[in-house]
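Worked problem 6 (solution included).
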Amino acid sequence: MAVFFGDGAIDEGAFWESLNMACLRQLPMIFVCEDNGFAVHTPAEARHGYKNISDIVRTFNCRVFESESTDVEELYHLTRSAVESMKTERMPCFFHFRYYRYLEHVGVFEDFKAGYRSRQEFEKWQKRDPVNLQRERLVLAGFKEQVEAIEREVTEMAQSALDKAKAAAYPDASILCEGLWV
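Solution. The predicted structure is:
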């Protein structure tokens, strides 16, 4: 089992309780912290009384894997290593990956005008974009036609879903209470 969460979630008790229980029960879980350095707009240094979450997690009965890589093949091998270690050591694993959030916290727009991050930082991270890096690797390996076919298929699926959503009737307000117990 794997659970993915942003670094803002480590500020919540549910994270610590889940990690503690997984360590106590020696559960084969992978905790994946996708650290973009922010909880909504608040930077880590304004939220944390520590420098590195991995240092704290290492005090638990848990294997810790850290990477600043955006190379999907490198991360695949790291994940395989974690899965193999869980089979022999019977303990959960914690991944700490540093990433970048391209758009606003919840939405589809850029938020550079909010002033808490810069376009230059975005451009630096965009050069390390895992999808673009892997696409380039596959094209150079001779899979250009397959890559382009997949891209067309995904674009068509997304457009179809968008068209269906736009054409759908707006739901009646009465369904807000369907399926509630109280």
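Discussion: The chain has six helices and six strands.
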